[in-house]
Amino acid sequence: MGDLSKDINSEFANDKIKAMLNVMYTASWIQSKQNSFFKPFNISPQQYNVLRILRGAGEPISVQTIKSRMLERAPNATRLMDKLCDKQLIERVACESDRRVVHIKITAQGQGLLTEIDTTKREDLLANLSLKEAKTLSDLLDKIR
Q1: Are 113 and 43 in contact (CB under 8 A)?
Q2: Could you tell me which of 124, 118, 133, 63 has the C-alpha nearest to residue 91?
Q3: pTM for this prediction
Q4: First to last CA, the chain
Q5: Do 25 and 46 share a domain, yes or no?
Q6: pLDDT in tens, 52-98
Q7: Which intervals hold domain HTH marR-type (predicted)?
C-alpha cells in the first residue's frame, strides 16, 4: 500500500494539507494509468469519455451536451471531436431545426472500439479497497465538492 509521505519524501503541516496533496497525487497516478491503458487503442481518456457519452445517449447530441457530461471539462472539445472524426469514430450531423447546431453521433467503428475496450481486462485501480471503503471514498469526494 502507498504512503504519500514516503512516495514524495515529504512531511506535512497537518492532515488536511496531506489529504489535499494525496488527492492530487492520486489523480495524477490514475491519469497516468488511464493514459497507458488507452494508448494501444490510439485514443486518449478524454476521447474515450466522449465515445462513452455518445453510446450512452443513444442518439446524436450537441457538442454542448457532450461538454456538460464530460468527467474532465475539456476546453478543447472541438479539437477532441475533430480527432475522433478523423479516426472515423464519430460523425457530425447537421441539426434539422437549427443550422447553427451540429450534433455528434458515434459511428459503427466507434461502437466497435468501445466493445473492444469493454472486453479488455483492465487493472483494478481500486483493488485495495472493499466495496464499503469505495463507497466511503466516493462519499468523501462528493463531500469535498
Answers
A1: yes
A2: 63
A3: 0.83
A4: 26
A5: no
A6: 999 999 999 988 899 989 988 777 888 999 999 999 999 999 877 87
A7: 1-145
